[in-house]
Amino acid sequence: TWMALDNRVRNSWREAKECTAFLECLERYCQPLYSCNPETISKSLPGLIRTLFTINTVSLYYNSTERMTAVLTKITNQMINSNKRYLSCNGTKTVWEQPEDAVKRKILACIDLNEEYQTCFQRVKDETEVPQTREFHFCEVFVFGKFDAFCNRLKKLLKLFDCVQIHDSIISYQQEVLDELPYSLEDSINKMKSKDYDFLDHKDLHFDEDFAEVMKVFEEIQKSITAAFDEEFTSIKSTILSLKFLDKLVLLHLPGANMNEKYFQVLREYKRELEDIGLLFKRQKQDPPLPRNYPPVAGKINWCKQLRHRIEDPLKILKERCGVLDSDLGKKVQQKYKRFHSMLVKYETEAHRHWFQE
């Protein structure tokens, strides 16, 4: 009837007017999504989420899960598009054509934005779970899943950059090992770069296939390099030289190097060195070997100082390696060191006293 049609028109008009008012409130919080970088977008998120909650609470149109999910999906899609523009310099450069450090900072900013987005939602959701308040619900998997998938793509890009950095470090240290390998990480990555797909499109699975191939090559290189380093490490018989070797190896950030176990190997070797030096001290303390043209007392002091340096220098380095000396073995080694060190100090003090009395 005419009255029914009139009521429908009036209701639709009121609904449209209400939606327009709410969307105008939302507009100022959505504006940064179109023009700003992730850091600035992140600052607008608390206001954006709270405004959405208010709309969800009082609006007759946006009070359903489906409609609120639709709004948040559009917001999420716009965030992803803004991140893509941010990462590609408004579509003018690929991630490979920009400085590596700059791209890494951008990627981390985008990942942080996703985390802040979900944190803000959870915070508002927790605040609204009180009696007599309409719960703020929507399909979280559908909304956040897209952003998570995009960030997973970014994390893979980060991993590629890290692999290249590790590879470059290895080149400066073990070029000859890489030259013997039948595959090259550089060739694999260059092959990937030559592809014409969008590396930031998380829905394009061609990247994932190429990424898996690059990681396979990197893992093979890693195994070969790790084996070469292990062989070199095993051949070193001096504690201090082993520690200096490990200090270089740490700088490579090589996955699979098992650094913690290597430091414990050095600790066990240091324990044996302490015992050997202790036996040497007991055997030679009455008549130590003297450098040529050294007076007897000065020679004793010099000999004692050399022994002290041999036990002090490795321990200084081991103290900087968190957890090694905190272990049961580390505590035993430190006790043994303190006892032997006090013996050396006492021996040196006695030698000085005799020297002054002469």
Strand tally: 0
Largest sheet: none
Task: Identify the overall geometry.
Answer: elongated
| SS strand fraction | under 5%
- CA radius of gyration is 33 Å
Structural class: mainly alpha
What's the total helix number?
A: 12
Average per-residue pLDDT, rounded, comes to 82
Return residue spans where pLDDT drops below 50 for at least 5 consecutive residues: none
Overview of this structure, please?
It is a single chain. This protein is mainly α. The chain is built from twelve helices and no strands. It has helices spanning 2-30, 32-35, 38-58, 65-87, 100-128, 140-179, 185-193, 206-235, 239-252, 259-284, 296-319, 328-357. Helix 5 (100-128) runs antiparallel to helix 6 (140-179), helix 6 crosses helix 8 and helix 11 (296-319) packs antiparallel against helix 12 (328-357). The longest helix has 40 residues, at 140-179. The radius of gyration is 33 Å and the shape is elongated. 22% of the residues are buried.
